[in-house]
Amino acid sequence: MIPKVAVIILNWKQPQLTLDTVNSFFKTKHSGFDYQIILIDNGSPDDSVKIFENTFNKNPSVTILKTKTNLGYVGGNNLGIKYGLKNKYDYFLIVNNDVLFHPQFLEKLFKIIKHTPKSFLAPKIYFAPGFEFHKDRYTKKDLGRVIWSIGGIIDWQNIYGSNLGIDEVDRGQYDLHLPPSDFISGCCFMVSRQFFLDVGLFDEKYYLYLEDVDLSRRAIRSGYQLRVIPDSIIWHVNSGSSGSGSNLHDYFLTRNRLLFTYRYACLRTKFAVFRESLNQLFIGRPWQKRGVVDFYLGRLNQGSWK
Question: Which InterPro entries match (predicted)?
Answer without folding.
Answer: Glyco_trans_2-like (IPR001173), Nucleotide-diphossugar_trans (IPR029044)
